Amino acid sequence: MQEIIHHTNPPGTPPRKGGLQAVGIFVFALVLWKICTGYDPSSWILGIPAAGLFTWFSLTQAESNYRIRFRALPAFLVYFLSQSVLTGLDVAKRALHPEREINPGFCTYPARLPPGSPRALFANMISLLPGTLSWSLVDGVHKVHLLSGHPMILEELAILESRVGKLFGLDLPEEMM
Amino acid sequence: MMIILDLLSILLICLGLFFFFASAVGLLRFPDTLCRMHALAKADNLALGCVILGAMYQQDDPLVIGKLFLIWAVTLLSSATGGFLLAQRIRRKFLAREGEV
User: Fold this and answer.
1) Domains of chain B: which residue ranges?
2) For B92, which residue in chain A has the nearest alpha carbon?
3) Given CB atoms, is B52 within the 8 Å cutoff of chain A?
């Protein structure tokens, strides 16, 4: 198994919590509030304190040591959306095909991402690939339910894992040893 | 121009309905609970995404567009989490039956 290269945040050290980040979270909270409450200006009486609370909460109470790199976000979203479309088509095809192309089974995949939000996000994203569903995550091993086994599945999971890693600024090779 | 937007929006919503239909068929036809969850978790997200994208073209108000997007984002989050929780529940039943717990 490969060594993971940490660009900035090794596990255990809290991420840098600069003022810029606080402002970013605060503005994000204000936008959410605006979307939910509409144009009535009097809603800010509650909205500004709520956004402040949101900022305080996410800066001090969130447990994760890993932050999403916003520069990596667009590429990840493109990958996410294209995979969503492929996955939806795949499931629709299997559901509507006269002879069900289903041969369920399991496979295991040892996690290379560090515990915490990267690993959790990867577990959730497994359910996004065509034909795979995250079944359990015990002792750093993902167990994956397969709609029908095919030989390239471990390679595809490794690509997905390295994509998730890039989002958090972690370098994983796209293939397993 | 308006006609093109209208057509695009009709097309997207129909596509969304098709995926909802496919996921419902999958829910009925797939052999066991885990396979059914594949149908629910995947085709539904795409279907909702298509319907919401189609509905966005019919809106002028940026706040409503934002709200539609938010609905999709929150549904994605809850369906991923809900799917994982359901899998845990099935897993515990499965292990209990196997006598491993």
Assistant:
1) 2-98
2) A136
3) no
Contact B86, B37 (CB under 8 A): yes
CA-based nearest residue in chain A for residue B87 = A135
Tell me which H or E stretch contains A107.
strand A105-110
Which amino acid, one-letter code, is at A130?
A: P
CB B75 within 8 A of CB B45: yes
Contacts of A134 (CB under 8 A, 6+ apart): A123, A124, A126, A127, A142, A144, A145, B83, B84, B87
ipTM value: 0.81
> Is B42 close to A91, i.e. CB distance below 8 A?
yes
Q: Does the predicted TM-score (pTM) go above 0.80?
A: no
CB-CB under 8 Å, B32 with A127 = no
Nearest residue to A142 (alpha-carbon basis) of A117, A161, A170, A164: A161
CB contact under 8 A, A147 and B35: yes
Tens place of pLDDT for every residue, chain A, 177 residues? 344 444 444 444 445 556 777 888 899 999 999 988 888 888 889 999 999 999 988 888 776 667 778 788 899 999 988 988 888 888 888 888 877 678 888 888 888 888 888 888 888 888 878 888 888 888 888 888 888 777 788 888 888 899 999 888 888 777 654
What the block records as the tokens of A62 is 């969130």
The three-class DSSP label of residue A27 is helix
By the CB < 8 Å criterion, does A34 face chain B? yes
Q: Where are the domains of chain A?
A: 5-60, 70-171
How many Å separate Cα B97 from the centre of its chain?
31
